[in-house]
Amino acid sequence: MLVGRDKVFISIHESNSEDRTDVYLAEYRESLEELSIPNQVVPMVKYKGESWPYASSPQRIQFLAKLRNEATEPIQGADSDTRLANWRELTRVIFF
Q1: Residue 73 lies in a domain
Q2: Which of 2, 17, 52, 77 could make an S-S bridge to 73, C-beta 3.0–4.6 Å?
């Protein structure tokens, strides 16, 4: 199986980093754009004065589920205006 630009969509949601991750992701997105690789790179607004934005484990799970749903919106969303035209061809999802 060959993987080409027409078979890949990269979705990254940055989550409250305190280093230069947002800068590196902006550079990475520019590189993806130059290579015509479809992508969605979303920097998260920093939480002022908080190192963790939720007080309990259920809140953390809800937060992570929301990020997962936002990251996969272009391939699984119900709205055809935001869903990729070739969404049916993207048959593998890798989370890390």
Answers
A1: yes
A2: 77
